[in-house]
Amino acid sequence: MNSALGIIFILQPNGGFGVKDIQELDADGLLLDGISHSYLAECVNVVAAGRKWVDNNILQHLLIPRSLHQAEHKLTEREKEVADLVSRGLRNKTIAQRLHVSEGTVKMHLHHVYEKLHLGSRAELAWAAHGEGADHRGTGNKGLL
Questions:
Q1: Distance from C-alpha of 122 to C-alpha of 78, rounded to nearest angstrom
Q2: Is 143 left (phi over 0), alpha (psi -120 to 50) or beta?
Q3: For residues 128, 129, 131 and 132, what is the CA-based torsion angle, rounded to 10 degrees?
């Protein structure tokens, strides 16, 4: 049995924390405020077992630029639709068929999405859409798209 006391911090999403701030905390567990009771219990159990716990939403909060949240509101409805389908793993050809547009039109919308959200790949788009804020382990937050 581990007799050491574990330290868990619950951070505010708008607290303006950075990587260096988190490193200085020297915590055993880090959670973003607004988490579910079951998610908190999971963190406590992991820390009690002597392991470290970092909420994925904190990592995403650190990795996604602050301007992304404001830029996503600048997407047109069609760009949001294309971005959502891409983030779910659909290929351009499939998206084009589903939306009844050409594959070139899908590529154009996707290009605009990347520019507006300052993203460079489909993987980054999927991370942004389903990462921060997605209904992950009961956090109750909404996705970006």
A1: 17
A2: beta
A3: 70
Identity of the amino acid at 23: Q
User: What are the percentages of helix, strand and coil residues in the chain, rounded to 5?
Assistant: 55, 5, 40
Q: pLDDT tens digits for 85-125?
A: 888 888 999 999 999 999 999 999 999 988 888 788 888 78
- List b or e across 56-80, with b for residues whose CB sees 16 or more CB atoms inside 10 angstroms: ebbbbbeebeeebeebbeebeeebb
In order, the DSSP letters of 7-72 are: -EEEE-TTS---HHHHHHH--SEEEETT--HHHHHHHHHHHHTT--EE-HHHHHHHHS-THHHHHG
This prediction has a pTM of: 0.46
CB 75 within 8 A of CB 113: yes
Beta bridge mates, 9:
30
